[in-house]
Amino acid sequence: MSFDADLNACAALVERADPLRFRAAMAAPVAARRVLFPLYAFNVEVARAPWVTQEPMIAEMRLQWWRDVSEEIAEGRAVRRHEVATPLAQAITPQDAALLDELAAARRWDIYKDAFEDEAHFARYMDQTAGNLTWVAARSLGPADETTVRDAAYAAGVAAWLLAIPELEARGRVPLLDGTATGVAVLAREALGRLTKARQNRSRISRAARGALFHIGAAEAVLKQAIAQPVAVVDGALSDPLERDRMWLPLRALTGRW
C-alpha cells in the first residue's frame, strides 16, 4: 500500500519535528499510518506556529489558518489545498475536526508569556493538546475508552513538557505553576499515576486503536527520573527517551502493551 506525495510529506515533517511519534507511527500497521501521519503533521504545524515569529499577531494568524482548516472539515466544506490539510480531511470526521480546533485554540497560550492561571488551567491545556490529539488518533483507528486514552495522553504530555522546560524558560515562558523540586516531583508523580491507571485499563483499548498509543511508553522513564531527580528538569538533564524507546518500541508494537 503506497503513500501519495501528501502522505509522504506528512511523514517527512513528523520525522523531522516529532521523531518519537514518527517511530511509533512506523510501528503501527500501514493503514493506521494513513491516519496518524496527517494528524501528527497537523500537530507539528500547530505546535510550532507560536514560535516561528516574535510577533503575537502573526502567530495568532498562523494558528487561525489551522483553525480555519479544522472548521472547513467540521462543516463539511471543501478544504483548502495543502499537503497536510488535504490528507487530514480524508482521515478524520467532522467531530474529530472540532477537537483539533480546540487543540489549536489551546496553543494560543504558547504565544504569550502569561503563566497558567491554576492547576485546572494546566490540566485543561494538557487535555486539549496531548489529550485531544491522542483521542482523535485512537478512535479513528478503532474502538477505545476515552478516559483511558486521555489518562495515557496526559502522562505523555507531561513527560514531553518536562523535557521542554529549559527551552520554554529560555523563551521567557512560565511553564510550571510550582517550579520547585517538590512541585516538579508532585506533577510527575500525578502523571505517572494516570499512566499506571491507564495501563490497568488497557483492555478497554482495542488492538486496532493501540497504534495511537505506542509513543506513550516512552513517558514512564522520563516521569520516574523527574520524581527521583526533579532538579534534572530545570537543568535540562533528563534522559532523552528516544534511544531508550528504540529498544522497547518493537516489543510494544508486537504485544500491544503500550
- How many β-strands, per DSSP? 0
Main sheet makeup? none
| Low-pLDDT residue intervals, each spanning 5 or more residues | none
Give average pLDDT, whole number. Answer: 96
Helix content: 55-70%
What is the count of structural domains? 2
Provide the succession of SSEs: HHHHHHHHHHHH
Strand content bin: under 5%
Structural class: mainly alpha
State the helix count: 12
The shape is globular
First and last CA, distance: 26 Å
Radius of gyration: 17 Å
Describe it for me?
With 258 residues, the chain is an all-alpha fold. It has two domains: 1-112, no CATH class; 115-258, no CATH class. It is built from twelve helices and no strands.
SSE arrangement:
Layout: H1 5-17, H2 19-27, H3 30-48, H4 56-74, H5 85-91, H6 94-106, H7 119-141, H8 146-170, H9 181-200, H10 219-228, H11 231-235, H12 241-255
Helix pairs in contact: 1-2, 1-3, 2-3, 2-12, 3-5, 3-7, 4-6, 6-7, 7-8, 8-9, 8-10, 9-10
List keywords for this structure.
globular, single chain, mainly alpha
Give a quick precis of the structure:
By secondary structure, the chain is mainly alpha-helical. Helices cover 69% and strands 0% of the residues.
